[in-house]
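To whoever is on call:

I kicked off a structure prediction for a single chain this morning and the downstream step that reads the tokens threw a length-mismatch warning. I double-checked the sequence; it's 146 residues and nothing unusual in it as far as I can see. Pasting both halves so you can look.
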Amino acid sequence: MKESQDISRLLRERGARVTPARLRVLALLRGAERGLSHHDVEKALDDGTPVDRVTLYRVLDWLVEQGLAHKTADEQRVFRFSAATTDGEPHQAHAHFVCDDCGKVFCLQDTPRAAPRLPAGFASTQVEFEVHGHCAACNVPVEEAR
């Protein structure tokens, strides 16, 4: 119940309508252990009250635009979504670490400050910094895992 109230508050703070689809999708992402693909989200929400596929795409994109979720591409170029920090603060631009094993996305505070210089005539609309590798939980040496 508290989780639903927190999510409703976050949505209202952004001037958005609190819809069942937004509530369910954000709650799912906040409870997920790893980034979820559109298909993963669709399957998880197929509990008798499925969310329309187009609505789901719109909700996921809206959550990313609002800074409530992250969108990253995995090594197969499938987009995966994960919840942003849950403190309710606006999501500031920063780098992300994506674990190639478990799919979790971690916010990095030490972010490069400047975008690369572009050739004449080019104009950027967005710059993203992403580091891929193995998180601390997945980067256990073989000897320790035994």
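Update from on-call: the warning came from a stale cache, not from the record. Cleared it. Sanity check on the structure: The chain has a mean pLDDT of 81.
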